Structures are given as C-alpha cells and as structure tokens.
Amino acid sequence: MTDEISSKYAFIVNPAAKSNRAVRQFEKLKPFILSEFPNAGIFLANNELTIEALCKEAINKYDHIIACGGDGTVHIIGGILYNTDTTLGILPIGSGNDIAFSLEYPKDPIQVLRSLKNYKSGNIDVMNVNGIPGFNTIGIGLDGYINLLANNKLTLFKKARYLVSGAVALTFYRKRNFSFFINEDRLNYRIKGWMLCAANGKREGGRYLISPLSVNDDGLIDFIFLKDINRLKLFKEFIKLSLGYTFDKNIIDHHTARTMTLENAQDYHIHIDGEQYVFNDELNISVDAGGLRVIRP
Description:
Strands 6-5-16-13-8-9 form a six-stranded antiparallel β-sheet, with helices on one face. The protein has a six-stranded antiparallel β-sheet with strand order 12-11-10-7-14-15, with helices on one face. Strand 3, helix 4 (71-81) and strand 4 (87-92) form a beta-alpha-beta unit. 30% of the residues lie in helices and 32% in strands. The longest helix is centred in the first third of the chain and has 15 residues, at 22-36. It has helices at 17-20, 22-36, 48-58, 71-81, 98-102, 109-117, 142-151, 161-172, 231-242, and strands at residues 9-13, 41-44, 64-69, 87-92, 120-129, 132-134, 137-141, 176-182, 187-193, 195-199, 221-226, 252-257, 259-262, 270-272, 275-277, 283-296. It is globular, with a radius of gyration of 19 Å.
C-alpha cells in the first residue's frame, strides 16, 4: 500500500478525450480530487505535444502521474514514464479505456480516485514497436483500418463510431498477404488473411475482446492472426465481437512469443493503442517485461 501523505500526484488532463467531453467530467470530479489529494498538481493540456511537455516536466516533481483521459492519453504518458521510477495511474474518462480495463480499474471514477490513493504497486510489460512503446494492442491490417476510420470521425454519432467504422471497413477492405516471423518459435508465415494483432491487453475499441487470454505481466505478447475467411463469415465474427464474444478459435492462429518481425510494414494500416503510425520496411515487435510501473487498484 502507498502512503498518500508522502506521495506526490500530478493529474494531467486531456480535454480532447471522449470527443472533448473529458474536461467536463474532470471538472465535476475536481472538488473530490482537491479534498483527497490536497497537494496534487493539476495540469490541463491543449494537445498531444502539451501532454508530452507537461509529463516531462512533472516527472521531476511528482512520483505518480495520473493520465486523465482515454487510451491515447495513457499511450502518450506511459511512453514517457516507460523505464522510469515514476508510477503511472489512470483516471479513465476517455472513450475506450481499454488499458484501465486490463488493469481492472473500477468503472466508477470516485472509486478509481480512492484506489489511486491506496493501491498495490506493480509493473506491466511494454511492447516495443521499432522503438515506440505500446501497452495494450497493436492492430495491423483490417484492425488498423477500422481504427483509422474511427479516428477520422466517420460518424457524428460518437457511441456508434467503431460500429459504423467497422461496417464500412468490413465492406470495402481487402485481404492482404502477410509475411511475418515468430522469432523464438522459428515460425515463418507467408499467408493471406485479414489482420494481425499483437496484444498485451485483452480488449480494444471499448468493447472488443480481441485477445481474452492476454496477461499484461507474463513477459509474453499474444499474436492473433485472422485467417482468410469469406466476407460473410467476417461480418458474423465482428458482430459477435461487438456483443462481447470472442473470435471462433478455428478462424485464428494464436501464438505467444517475445518477438515478431513483419515484412513490408508500409503495406498495412497500423495502430498502437489506438494511435495511427506509418512504418517503412520491417516492423519489429518485442516485449520489455515489467517495463512500466503502474497503479493496480
């Protein structure tokens, strides 16, 4: 357990989270935060660059940095705290909150704030993607394309954004030829399929249990490859995902490993923790066991 009197907390708020509604939710919680964390620093960011700057400044003054937002906010702040002694906490007031879900944070924000004071400290694994840290999932192919459409605000109906983006992607996206190597198992894949996902967490998109067997502190990455199935079957499987079910085990290849290499990364849409990235040539994914210190409720 931690001693909240001697600990120093900084709350970094991403007002753009949850489609610009996170700041309103934070303001409602602010009186409780000030009463429970009287010496805390509260910082309101303007954009992603401001989040980075605020975190880099706070890391020298505070031993707990609380990411107030969704997975994108956690991705930025976690990337700065990676391989440091500063502890990451989450106030999940974003849209997806999948990293908080994998860490078993309560849904109620007041309960979350109470747990940030009294917690069991721990470390989680970090996926290293060509030098970029990832904490939840890396989506390559169809998964990355759905994320791209969702981030581009394809629909004005916020709660339906991933559903609508998924429907559009499932209709128009085409299968790809994948060439990847699971290093320690010496498995070399040259195969057509829909997507490849590297997972440290169980869920993405706020509801989709893409890798239910993932454990974020076992020193391994789960690699899920969605095979060459017909489009009708693909629609059925994603409807199941949206309802909280998992992929049929017969349509995926599932491996656990510490490293993976993907060729021709420029041919795929790729997201890391819901953030879009573009890579050229090879994509190398490896695990840094216990690389991030976190608050576990």
